[in-house]
Amino acid sequence: MPDTMLMDEAIGAFLEALRQGGRASPATIDAYRRDLLAWSRFSQGRGETRITQIERGSLRAYLMAERSRGVAIRSLRRRFAALRALYRHLRQQAPDLRDPVQGLTMPKTGQRLPDWLTVDQARMLMQAPVSIPGVDETPNGFIRLRDQLILELLYSSALRVSELAGLNLDDLDRHGGTLRVLGKGRKARVVPVGQPAWTALRAYLVPRSIVAADGETALLINRRGQRLTVRSIQIRVQTLGKTRLGQALHPHTLRHSAASHLLQSSGDLRAVQEYLGHAGIGTTAIYTHMDYQQLAQVYDRTHPRSRRSGHDSTLSGEKI
């Protein structure tokens, strides 16, 4: 197969072979046609027009994008079957062609995948109102600014709610633009933090200094100046979801949203695995390490809340 073979040409040849072979029903061929052309449009939107450009990460990004649109698992499995059949046919014509489907797995029918927000929903959630009636009794809108920081850090750095509640002031490195978190099994990892989160942090620290109890090291505190609990964060996120999106929201939804948006944009599963600090995402259970600088580059290039604009000069050289 020539390296220049276009995706639509490959799909057309595959569908014609199915028709000529007579072993697939017209309904099956029509379903394959719809699924494969939808995949082709998605891939071409990413600049992938030739069949040899497609890699495993490209297919993951497509399937994740379909899931984020609300496509059911049964339909995802049909799309996966169409891709597998296409590459089986192509490799019969060109045995040396790389098969990006190989190694991919799909969840079983009925298996529940985590919920996440679309990028537009995430943007809407992050648009902080000037004030919220009933919550600005504390000095300088402390509650409002703290809640905005909660949302920014959950989404910007894909934190577990327990990791967020456990953050201390000295876990944030403003000079490096990173955050040190203590995950499951007390395993530490370093993740990037987006520029909007640093902006929210700077705004929050002023009223925090007024409210905090003497000697309190926690980043997030309650009205009494003490560390905010996991349950309190869950309640605040749920309330903010209802207020800004009209739906109840769980902190883990923001973690999954951050991961899925990064994966859709980059197709780099290894970066997402390191970003989340666990063995895999979705159906993947393979843990792979990568250099932090590579992770930071992927984050800055693809995450909707990245630090594309560069470091804020007022933050440089400080560690809090």
Automatic annotation (TrEMBL):
This is Tyrosine recombinase XerC.
